[in-house]
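Listing 4. Sequential folding, example run.
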Amino acid sequence: MKHDTKSKGNRIAVIYGETDRSIMSTYDALNRRSTHATVVPGSPDLVLTSFAFAYDKVGNLRRSVETCNQASGVAIPNRTVVTTYDCTYRLKVEAITDA
């Protein structure tokens, strides 16, 4: 397994040796992961699964949109996960909806 990191220590790529499967990530200005994608070995433009993340003003994960490339043969439904927190920032509800 190989890692590629940015200057702030954020892991932007992981390549797994046996399969050469790559996981690519991007980060926002506050060093929170904003996207995460698994790509086909040797075909960085062919994304198998991808995730997009959104955060609230205190850094809690509020929304995760999970997308699967159905043409790749992976039979996982797309979905959105929305989380809400109480006034002390504790997780209250996690709602999952298929897209």
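-- end of first protein; second protein begins --
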Amino acid sequence: MFMFTAIWIMLAVAVAVLVIVRRRIAGQEDDALHIADSEQDLVARQREHLEILGRFDRWTFGLTLTIIGYSLLLIGRYIYIAWHQGQSFMW
């Protein structure tokens, strides 16, 4: 059971790292909307930031769903093992 918990912890740490890195990248983003022809380089930079943040969002969302599913499996396994051993739960 320890191995499964260690895997869950590694997934949770990965999500936490993704969230921290995404927050740092988003903090460097220029919040002003650039639409003038003279600001095309700024528009391109904003587009790059958007693509990078989109990738971080997809990975974070996917890993979060994986952690939720894995958590449900761990809880189910724990309940199954406890039920088979005849232990009573202290809610």
